[in-house]
Amino acid sequence: MTRILISETPNFVGKIIEIAGWVSVRRDHGKLIFIDLRDRSGMVQAVVIPDKEEVYKIAKDIRSEYAVKVAGLVKERPGKSANEKLATGKVEIEVEEMEIIARPEEELPVDVSDPEFNLNLETLLDYRIVTLRNEKVQAIFKIYAQVLEAYSEVMRERGFLEIKTPKILSSATEGGANFFKIKYFNQEAFLAQSPQFYKQAGVSVFERVFEVGSVFRAEPHFTSRHVNEYIGLDAEMAFISGFAEVMDELEKTMQYILESVAKNCRSELEKYGAEIPTFVPIPRIKLTEAVEILSNEYGKKIENLDIDSEGEKLISQWAKKEHNSDFVFLTHYPYNLRPFYSMPSADPEYTETFDLIYRGVEIASGGQRINNYQELLKNIKKRKMKPEQFKDYLDIFKYGIPPHGGWGLGSERIVQKILGLGSIKEAILFPRDVKRLTP
Ligand code: ATP
Ligand code: MG
């Protein structure tokens, strides 16, 4: 017999089938043994009756999280006993044969069958191998996978070519202290903290490129939205007439991702009581205006336009209140707060750049880049950086490159905010932070 998935069992009423999975719970009711069996597609109830002596003996041995193979008859559950909450709740499997195929060496440290599963973050992550078996935890990663799938899908649809760029770099090109230094044979190297330069090289050839890739940040943060390794959803596009086009594209991208999650992950969202409201046009406001709003409406003062995380939270509340939008674009960041390659605005104090805030947290930064060789050179010098250090980067511009821009978008923050997770780390299988390098 070939194995079918548990989600398919309702299609086989009256037939003998084979399924395999993990035992979530075993319940003994008088002489009957009930087993909730879980595989990657869902959960179903299996029943063992004492008449089947051999199977009954095996079933008596079974504990939570044993992996078993079961052959049995799919039966309709009589009206009252049907479980409405379960997609397979209207059927059960009357077990004919059963085989234990893997058993835990020791008792599991936590009860993974608990539907609420309110563990503290440390326990959740320390026992990651085990806690991932919980259905509510798994739901996070199904949504995460949907976000990745939707991102690639919409990028391809919009004519972006997928590229992969190196993560081991010879120098800490963009400057700053947030690089991890590594030993690379007999020289030192650095882990990439952005694919910025390489995706610009990409647009100089392919016009539109995107990358889903690892980003490393040696930031000693202890916040609910930072980790030291994350997956960036990057994009860069050429032949733009201004950075509004980059925002247009990112807006379409976010709409596509959210609609795709809403459509394909209904039961996963439900586990968190999460809702994805109908997408509305994203308001775009200048950072200077945002700072005024914060001051007038919330009495919050921002020094030197350097908006902090509380400011982002409040301006997000304002966008919800005034525009019914979960998103808001803040635009025209000051020159001194943006990287050297940012395109200056007509007023050179500012830049043609933006941040995208989603439910109170920055999820993306982007903008138009300087594409003229001489201008870039001038800007590097103005910032007292050394042009020699940027030789490879400057080469991209030496040979001509059209006006372009793009964004860096954090994949895990999207999932964190969709589900309202307390920490970004919950949305990462095996997160890396200042203190955590295992499991
Ligand atoms: P923040 O101000 O929140 O520290 P940033 O401005 O330093 O973020 P960018 O360099 O703009 O981050 O990176 C682009 C996007 O990548 C961010 O908007 C965010 O979604 C994500 N990101 C940046 N740093 C981290 C991090 N340490 N952990 C998780 N995601 C991150
Ligand atoms: Mg940013």
Biggest β-sheet, characterized?
8 strands, mixed
CATH class of the largest domain: Alpha Beta
Number of helices: 12
**CATH architect. name of the largest domain:** 2-Layer Sandwich
What ranges have pLDDT less than 50 throughout 5 or more consecutive residues?
none
Give the tally of β-strands: 16
Descriptive key words:
BirA Bifunctional Protein, domain 2, 8-stranded mixed sheet, 5-stranded mixed β-barrel, binds magnesium ion, binds adenosine-5'-triphosphate, OB fold (Dihydrolipoamide Acetyltransferase, E2P), elongated, alpha+beta, 439 residues
Helix/strand layout:
Blueprint: E1 16-29, E2 32-39, E3 42-48, H1 53-61, E4 67-76, E5 91-102, H2 121-126, H3 128-131, H4 135-157, E6 161-162, E7 168-169, E8 181-184, E9 187-191, H5 196-206, E10 208-216, E11 229-238, H6 243-264, H7 266-271, E12 284-286, H8 287-298, H9 309-323, E13 327-331, E14 353-358, E15 361-368, H10 373-382, H11 391-398, E16 404-410, H12 411-419
Parallel strand pairs: 3-5, 6-10, 12-13
Antiparallel strand pairs: 1-2, 1-4, 2-3, 4-5, 7-9, 8-9, 10-11, 11-16, 13-14, 14-15, 15-16
Helix pairs in contact: 4-6, 4-12, 8-9
